[in-house]
From TrEMBL:
Its cofactor is Zn(2+). It holds the Pfam family ADH_zinc_N. Keywords: Metal-binding, NAD, Oxidoreductase, Zinc. This is alcohol dehydrogenase.
Length: 387
């Protein structure tokens, strides 16, 4: 893998001062004070890297839906904080002992990388069970209250301070930043959802229904298609349904339509799988209770429903236990992901971005000082912040 030379922005002071790193000009973080307030630029002239820490210069960050929910007051947040957890950047400094990527290689200065949203402890019962994304002392980039010593804790900054224990994945130089940045949330979560599904039903030659055609739903359509599945995507917006066809869907559904209408679910399933076809895998990324009900009634005997879109509180859903028993159904919940899913996401994007319009899903790129404008929303699945 080619590694570019490091730009001379970061210098280390004399050894007697420890592993403090100074950036010139100073690293800058856009700090969100709380609901109803604009972001404030905060200079961070010095960063103290503990053993295993990494300092990364951010190339591009994308705005995730959870960032939008935070500033709208729909996601509880400990403020002030630096939002942003989807980004790609280049390593400019290492703490003592260095760090390793998920495949066991040593991280190099100048290396282009993405990193996990989660910082697990690695030793608690959940980490030992293989659930580091649910670590009992979990810290998350773009979610934690800004604190002394970890000011650069989110993607909306010129630099990010990666703590020891963060999953880091090296990325190719030729893949556009707009493709790679969402890997740290959207793409890796889809990889986790597909793994949850395939532990029950194989994707190859399966009929799959995806609810929701924003970034995650589109990514799921492409990944499932490449794994040999026939994919049907449901979304109420015509423009999103059109995008789904470009990401491999063989048919699309308007969930507001009658099932047997030209844009209904039964019609789409027949187009994708023949008469009386029923999906064996259903992936819910919309967060709508109505979508969950629709998928439950449509799924075939022995099928699996993966819930990955209900990240915010919503209405209760009434479910008849007899439906699960007689149809031998499995429901899996997926929230964020483990390091292997980020690795799988990067491997997939390194090739798939040339077959599917992943780069086109990121719209306008805003300057760092314009982060509030970026958070105002867009018709694109993502907009970007470019430090």
């Amino acid at each position: 893998m080619t590694v570019r030379a490091v730009t001379p922005r970061v210098v280390a002071p004399p050894a007697g001062l420890g592993m403090s790193i100074s950036a010139y000009p100073s690293a800058t973080a856009m700090v969100w004070p709380g609901e109803g307030h604009a972001h404030e630029a905060v200079a961070v002239p010095g960063v103290r890297l503990a053993p295993g820490d990494v300092l990364v210069e951010v190339e591009l960050a994308t705005v995730c839906g959870s960032d939008l929910r935070a500033v709208r007051g729909q996601r509880p947040s400990a403020t002030p904080l630096v939002l942003g957890h989807e980004q790609v950047g280049r390593v400019v400094a290492l703490g003592r002992g260095g760090a390793k990527t998920t495949d066991g290689r040593r991280v190099s200065l100048g290396e282009r990388v993405v990193w996990s949203v989660a910082v697990p402890c690695g030793t608690c019962p959940r980490c030992r069970r293989g659930l580091p994304q649910k670590c009992m002392t979990l810290q998350r980039y773009g979610h934690e209250r800004m604190r002394r010593g970890w000011e650069l804790s989110g993607g909306f900054a010129t630099h990010a301070h990666l703590l020891d224990g963060t999953a880091i994945v090296a990325v190719p130089e030729d893949v556009p930043a707009a493709v790679l940045a969402p890997a740290s949330c959207s793409t890796a979560t889809v990889a986790a959802a597909l793994e949850a599904a395939t532990s029950i039903v194989p994707l190859d030659r399966s009929l799959v229904v995806v609810a929701g055609a924003r970034m995650r739903g589109l990514t799921a359509a492409a990944m499932a298609t490449d794994a040999g599945a026939r994919v049907v995507v449901s979304d109420p917006r015509p423009d999103r349904r059109e995008r789904a066809l470009a990401f491999g869907a063989v048919a699309v559904v308007d969930p507001r339509s009658a099932s047997d209408s030209p844009t209904g679910l039964a019609t789409a399933l027949a187009k994708a799988g023949g008469r009386a076809a029923a999906p064996t895998i259903a992936l819910e990324f919309s967060g709508a209770a109505s979508a969950v009900r629709s998928l439950l009634s449509a799924i075939d005997v022995g099928g699996v429903l993966v819930l990955a879109g209900s990240g915010s509180p919503g209405p209760d859903l009434t479910i008849a236990p007899e439906q699960f028993m007689r149809k031998l159904l499995t429901i899996r919940g997926v929230h964020t992901y483990a390091p292997q899913h980020l690795d799988a996401a990067v491997r997939y994007l390194a090739d798939a971005w040339q077959r599917y319009p992943f780069a086109d899903q990121v719209g306008q790129a805003f300057a760092l000082a314009e982060v509030d404008a970026a958070l105002a929303g867009s018709d694109h699945p993502r907009v970007a912040v470019r430090p």
